[in-house]
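Standup notes
- DV: blocked on the single-chain target, sequence here:
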Amino acid sequence: TYHYVVAKTNTGGRGPHSDPVSARMPTPAVPQLTSAPTAFANRGAPFRHLLRGSHEPVRFTADGLPDGLRLDRRTGLIHGTPTETGEFTVTTTAGNAAGDGTGTLTLTVGTPPPAPWTYGDLGDPVLDERAFGTLGVVAIRTPGSTSYDSGTFTVRGAGVDLTVNNQGMTGQFVRRPVTGDCEITARLVSRTGASADRVGLLMAKSLSPFDQAAGAIVSGGSSAQLMLRTTVAGKSAFTGNGTAALPGLLRLKRVGTAFTAALSTDDGATWTTLATGEIPGFGDAPYYVGLMVCSRDQLARCTTEFDEVSITTD
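- DV (later): unblocked, structure below
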């Protein structure tokens, strides 16, 4: 309880005190962890994950972090570069004057794809939910990640869609730079975590989520189509009516300004063309080709496995 009086002052001095008053500060509730209970990192790659809690926590702990990661106890930011792989069960707490709430973070640390592959989310990742609302249509509220093991890419991606507000796309994109005509083939092995997801192959003029792009995309695990964004910040159009079966092969081919998507359900013995379309002005500068995963759910990741990935250029 705080006891105090109030007085006015000016250049002539201080006036009389008011009658004494008192105020009791409210007792806060014990915090509860509200941040995501799972996170994914790669050995040798910078990592950030923010612990959050209800009722204004002022301190955090995280016990069981892998080597290379540390916690800012005041802000709840786990950061650093992991030096070991594996699955780690991290006991977390968030506390204030009323006590400490306890939670568990399951952190999986994998191996990143080999060079020249890189990976990242197309869009604007949001580390702190309190910042959401200040960003545009391509905000990423749940970060994605890509790991690699013996020829298999495990791609985890969230995001709204590959045609967000008829302007851009969001999701996890694992890619490598190429020039000229190109063909990418990959086997879509499995997908879990989201029923309405869009996953597949992508050629993007740049890493801007609004730039021109083409894809061989499977939606909801079964509908296979060619995706084209022919203008910057324009709508992504989906054409074709193929039926995908997992595991199955996808192919995306560029020749000049023409892009063709195809699929095979018999391990490459026969191929079915989904559609062909043009992107005028795609240009001759280096661009990116690779694997794309969008869960179409801002708060959930889709986990997709690809193998037999092959890229040829002319």
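- Follow-up: The two ends are 77 Å apart (CA to CA).
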